[in-house]
Structure formats: C-alpha cells, structure tokens
Amino acid sequence: MLLPKGGLNWKAARAQLPPARMLWNLVTRTRFLLLVALTGIVLLLWRGISSSASEMQSFYCWGPSTPPIDMSQNEYARWNAHMQTPVVFNHHAPLKVDSESIKHVDLNPVKSTRKAVVNEEKILIVTPLKDAAPYLSKYFELLAELTYPHHLIDLAFLVSDSKDDTLAVLSSELDRIQKRPDHIPFRSAMVVEKDFDFHLSQSVEERHSFEAQGPRRKAMGKARNYLLSAALKPEHSWVYWRDVDIVDSPPKILEDFIAHDKDILVPSRTSTLRCSAITLANTVAQTSGFTDTRMELTLKGDSTTTPGSSRIRVAN
C-alpha cells in the first residue's frame, strides 16, 4: 500500500474525496431515489410478514382437523389436553393497614415445650407482696440460685396495702441483683403498685381463720389478676407463681416443672392422719372419685382443725 509522502493527514485525505457537488448530483438523481424507496418498501413488507407469521403461530389449532362434534372420546381428550386455564377462587387483594394505633401480635411462634432451655423459652416469675419486707432477703437468695438461664427470666411484683418497708426493700434488692457483673441478673424486673384497701393481721391464727378466708382470698385473686395483666407479655412461654415466704426450694425447680409439660402444675403436700383423713396443702383435684365418693370438705381455718390445715375427710 502506497502512502503519501509524510504519512496520512487531513489534507491528503480530503484531496482523495470526491467534490461535494458531485455527491449532491448523485444523491438527487431519480434512479438513486427510486432505489432507496424500493429498499424501504421491501423492509416494511418483510417485517409485516414476519409479525403475521408469529401471530398465526399463536393461534395454531391443536388436535385433528375434525369438528368437535365428530371427534371420538380419545380425540376429544387429546384435543383438550394442552388446556391449562388458571382459576382463582375468592381472590382478595392484600389489605394494608397504616394506622399506628393498630397493633398486631402473633402468638403462634410462642411455644411451651420440654426443651425450654434449648428453645430459649422465656419465663415470667410473678409474686404478690404485702408487708413482706422480712422475707425478701431470703426470697432473692433462693431466686439467685435458680439454674434456668436468668437472661430468659422476667420478674414481676405487685405491692399492695403494705404498712412496712416492702417497696423500699424490694427496690434495693432488685437494684443490687440486677447490677451484679455475673450471670445472676435477670432479663427484666417490674414493680406494680395497687392497693385494695384490705388490711389483715399477719399472724398465722388470724390469716388462716375461717372468717378471714373469703375476703383474704378475694383480695389475693384481685392482686394476681392485676399483676398478671400488667406483666404478661406475648413472648412469655411459662408463668411461675412464687410465694415470697418460701424458705427452701431446689435450684432446678423450674426445670422440674417444665419436664412435666403440663398447662397447669400445682405442687402439693399430702399426708395421712389416723388412717382415715387426708391432708392437702391448698390443692384439691376434682376427679371422678371425688364426685362419686361421699366426702366431707373441711375448709382451711375451720375451728375444728389446727390453724393452717386443710382436710378432705372421707365419710364412708
């Protein structure tokens, strides 16, 4: 290939181009314009034929070239075999709720199983308090010994009609135990105050007297209802009611209760007296034998029993 002396440059390339007038004459010739028009028409016809062919392919008839009325059962089945018409029954568009005053709580994921520790099931320990200042130190001592993971335990207390320093002692004990640097602090703690204007001596004789049982247990029921309604959260799998005056309990008491895998579990103490009387502590199970057998129920605190006892006497 021969190149001009000095290499390629714009002036040399421009000299090789035909004059602009010659190009204009070529473009404006009738023969050239006719060629361009024919080329455009051919392209338009080709595109039209291609699209028509694809549309015709979409409406290709399946089955034999026979009217449906003349088809056999097998031919009719093959003819309809390709049909897969989607059907939607009772379709409802999703409802979007934007109101901030509406809250949705799904309790389906919350389970109560024997594998509570593995599943990290949360436990709520609830304790009603009244004039309980002398018992709180021992209460928290036993609570700290629980072997169930403390980061899965919530504490809740209701202080009502107290004349002593229950609230202050409770607050001090909670603050002390929750500030510990080890694994003892619990997941959370709640203190609820609610007075019911019920005042009763803390002496065993008066607390367990027959006359005091109705008002006393009514106030206890109210306190438990208020405490549970305030403290129970959707994430809680178990609720453990614990008295404040317990002096001893096994560290694995929660695991022992959970192992039974029952909806309601009540520990009881029974003993037999004179081979004819059964003593139960705050627990009566109404079974078929209970209703079929003629029995005499002695209420707690009856004048015929010792203070604090509960008896079901079999009267055969």
UniProtKB/TrEMBL annotation:
Stretches of the chain forming a coiled coil according to its record: none
Keyword terms of this UniProt record: Membrane, Transmembrane, Transmembrane helix
Superkingdom of the source species: Eukaryota
InterPro entries: Mannan_Polymerase_Subunit, Nucleotide-diphossugar_trans
GO molecular function ontology, one term from the record: alpha-1,6-mannosyltransferase activity
GO CC list: mannan polymerase complex
GO terms, biological process: cell wall mannoprotein biosynthetic process; protein N-linked glycosylation
Membrane found in the keyword field: yes
Bilayer-crossing regions: 32-49
Cross-referenced PANTHER family: MANNAN POLYMERASE II, N-GLYCOSYL-TRANSFERASE (AFU_ORTHOLOGUE AFUA_4G06870)
Family: Belongs to the ANP1/MMN9/VAN1 family.
Name of the featured protein: Mannan polymerase II complex ANP1 subunit
Organism: Purpureocillium takamizusanense
